[in-house]
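Predict the holo structure. Ligand: 28F.
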Amino acid sequence: MATQQKYDENSIKILEGLDAVRKRPGMYIGSTDKRGLHHLIWEIVDNAIDECINGYGDYIKISINKDGSITVEDHGRGVPIGMHESGKSTPEVIYTILHAGGKFEEGSYKVSGGLHGVGASVVNALSKWMTVTIYKEGQINTISFENGGHLKEGLKQIGTCPQSKTGTCVTFMPDPEIFKSTNFSFTTITERMQESAFLISNLTIEIVDEEDGRDTKFHYENGLVDFVEYVNKEIGKQELHKVVNFNGIKQGIEVDIALQYNEGYNENILSFVNNVKTGDGGSHETGFKSGITKAFNDYAKDNGLIKGKDSTFDGSDVREGLTAIISLKVPEALLQFEGQTKGKLGTPEARTVTEQITYENLKFFLEENREIALAIVDKAARSKVAREAARKARDAARNGKGKDKKEKLISGKLAKATGKDSMKNELFLVEGDSAGGSAKTGRNRETQAILPLRGKVLNCEKASSNDISNNEELNTLTYAIGAGIGNDFNPEDSNYGKIIIMTDADDDGAHIQILLLTFFYRFMRPLIEAGMLYIANPPLYALDFGKTKEYVATDEELEEKKKTVKQQFKVQRFKGLGEMDAEELYDTTMNPETRSLIKVSITDAALAEKRVSVLMGDKVEPRKEWIEENVDFTLEDNFKR
Ligand code: 28F
């Protein structure tokens, strides 16, 4: 940890006014969408957590209030209530004067620990109103603000409390003029708070939704070990051994790591620096990866488990089925973050330090636990064999062999587009042969290709890599797109600029969508990242006016039409795409001039990762929730009809 600087009440530097925050909120909280909105909570909670890390208070409560405001409460010492040299009370200074170090400002970073109150004024600036209640020295004091941080009522005592009751309680209402939406998500809050509870053992965090009564409490005694156990349980794959936990400190950098292999094939590495998630990884993750690769290769060589100069494991071999949490404490002076959202650790020392600590501890662990070591090495060896076989198959395919087989695979299924400009071309993945037939007839042949899908797509989350590589449907799809798969996937080689999933607007359709999304997420993720994956939005109803027809996509829209349209009309409900004739299907769902598409994007890769692992199980409800809450379906354009 950085040396604890003493911030006395007079040492706060006045740097900028709150107006600057309201003018350019993105500079301070990243964005004004849902993410930015929730950032307000993180800013306040961070201060409460800092107080706890410093050793004061072990309980934090977050409430989503009935009026939509948020309350955060801690049992720390309470913000100082004395006067500041400026003649204002300390709380007024803390909540109205902007401090340096906006997280999203170039070249400056906020570090947890020791810098209390930073960010609170930003939240105040972006709030319709804010109230702070401080329990300290047997007194209850409050101060309130309105309209972006203007003082409403200065600090005043409103009552007394036992000397032993101390803490800070902040309630704020986000300003609807700043934020696109002011609806907080209980799920988003609990997920983040659970992470904090894992990282800070002994801290209890409670989240309450006053609107619907949901109430969740997190408290973990064994930190990262509990974290890894939890993640692996969620994934649902059998664990190969007990969680391995080690830590060390070098060059002032503290490294704490927990890891556990499961029988699955995915790697799941989460990393944190000073209790903040580094969602884009960085030098510590790089160091960790080289550390485990080296440890397994050395162990396998020393014990005669692999021989010859070509016999080394690749990093990917030793990460199959690995779940790991990496948590670093980096002194402020060494901290460097990179990338747009500052979610990537740059600090070069973190790489070597993490690599060494990982290597030394893991090597020792393997030497001491032969049975576990053999199980993991065996798994890595199988990965290596599969990887090499796949490479041979690819080489063969590139050299022409196997090409006939692939052509045969798509012939009779794929209706290709005639146009040669692949980026202008679109591939429709259509549920069922009958809708596929209509789509083939109705499409624009120059730019639109059709691939009908028969029945349910394989659930890639449950299938073995063998089953996946032998699956005819997925092979057809892969070959039709023509850009490789897995590590070899390159969206620039795609035969299509848009891949559009077109299913019925029912539960089965939703299921097929999610199965396809899982496949794309696991094996063609760059396609999603490049914004090339879409979901078609077929209408639910046709309104038949006799001479003309109109289409509506939702029940709400239908009700709206029933109220507003004076003419008589018959309502036809489409049970599936197959009920539309070719022309109707083209006009409503495929015609670029009139259709509306949903672009698939990944808001938070780590969260999506967890969701894909967790929710591709047997339950339907959470799956639906997943679609709604965690894949950010951004409407490309509104209904033009
Ligand atoms: C609900 C959000 O913000 N908790 C906080 C403290 C405690 C101190 C403090 C905060 C003093 C001069 C900056 C108390 N006693 N929860 C919170 N708890 N800030 S914010 O001090 C702020 C500094 O400038 C605190 C002694 N030292 C510090």
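Confidence is low (pLDDT under 50) at residues 1-15, 100-115, 632-641. The pocket of 28F is lined by residues 7, 9, 12, 44, 47-48, 51, 72-74, 76-77, 79-80, 90, 116-117, 168, 170 (CB under 6 Å).
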